[in-house]
Amino acid sequence: MELDDLRRQWQTQPVGPATSPESTEQTLRAMLAQTPDTPLSHLKRNARRNLSVAVLILVINLRAVLGQGSAHGVMNEPLMRGLLLTGFLLLFASLIWQLWLFRQMERTGDNLRQQLSRLTGQVKQVLQLRQVYGVGWYGLMLLAALYLKRHALLSYLQADGQQLNHALIVGAGLLAAVGMGAWLYRAGQKQRQRRYGQYLDQLEATLRELE
Amino acid sequence: MSPATAPLSADFTALIGDNQPLLQRVCRMYCADADDRQDLYQEIVLQLWRAWPQYRPGAAKVSTWLYRVALNVAVSDLRRRTRHPAPGALDPEAPYAAPPPEGPDADDLAQLYRAIEQLSSVEKAFVLLYLEDRSYEEMADILGLTQNNVRVKMHRVQDKLRQLLTQPA
Known about the structure:
The complex is a heterodimer of chains A (211) and B (169).
Chain A: H1 3-10, H2 21-32, H3 39-60, H4 62-66, H5 78-105, H6 112-148, H7 150-157, H8 163-210
Chain B: H1 10-30, H2 34-51, H3 62-76, H4 106-117, H5 121-131, H6 136-143, H7 147-166
Helix pairs in contact in B: 1-2, 1-3, 1-5, 2-3, 3-6, 5-7, 6-7
Family (chain B): Belongs to the sigma-70 factor family. ECF subfamily.
InterPro entries (chain B): RNA_pol_sigma-70-like (IPR039425), RNA_pol_sigma-70_dom (IPR014284), RNA_pol_sigma70_r2 (IPR007627), RNA_pol_sigma70_r4_t2 (IPR013249), RNA_pol_sigma_r2 (IPR013325), RNA_pol_sigma_r3/r4-like (IPR013324), WH-like_DNA-bd_sf (IPR036388)
GO molecular function, one term (chain B): sigma factor activity
């Protein structure tokens, strides 16, 4: 038996009882009322929750960000305020972009090839975005720590007769911090690969097969 | 607006009512299990509802648009992984719940279905559109390929099916 033989039967499969428009509408409402439980809807929910948490944290720290009435002298320094503000901006931009990407990923009216190549590109963008955001935040934290400890560091480096030793220790500390950053980056990459990699591989394989 | 509270236009309700068999056939091609079919059907309807405001009748035939959305959902696997059957939603025993083949060709037919099940999701899309009697032009439009490309790939899929059918079980 070949496909041509099946084609004759395919479209004449048994059909259920005709439904009235009212019952179709009721059925549709029941179906649409369900909360979608797709991988994409999970990602969207997470991104929305993270955005709400970020807004809450910003509201709590608003006075510190604006440099008004901070109890600690540290937050009155313009560079610290700048770093904090940059961190928040980075966080908001990343979350809003992610939400926009997830919304775009739900578009399904394109042809299959366009759909697959768009989805592949968007999943990659989400991965890159999280990567850039992670690196950016770590860099900001490192900068802030160096800035806060700058006086102690400078006096430590200029200690009489110990300059070379102290410079080596500080260098090793910086190297360790960069190494820690690299390790966190790799761990993040592995986690993202676990979370999205399989889906991305599947999309790319399907796209290759179609092309 | 939430899908549960959004108004359902009469056009959309009629569209789904009229094309329920088509959507069920897509689900049947991709899911052997009745619960999975039900999940896929719901996800396709949800995506159709989301995409409906953007549908422009002049840009594509309604059937082309329906196949596009349904295949995009089925192939790109954006659907749910865990099952939460809708209370009161479409009856899983309803039409196209994969009735066992009957008649003199029942064995051959069952063998062909088993062979189709072994195809990839893209190959199944070609088989589905072929069984649905879509022209190469419409297939090309749905899949985003040239008509020649569709022809070549369709032949390859048919060859693969023949090979699968000649393999010992």
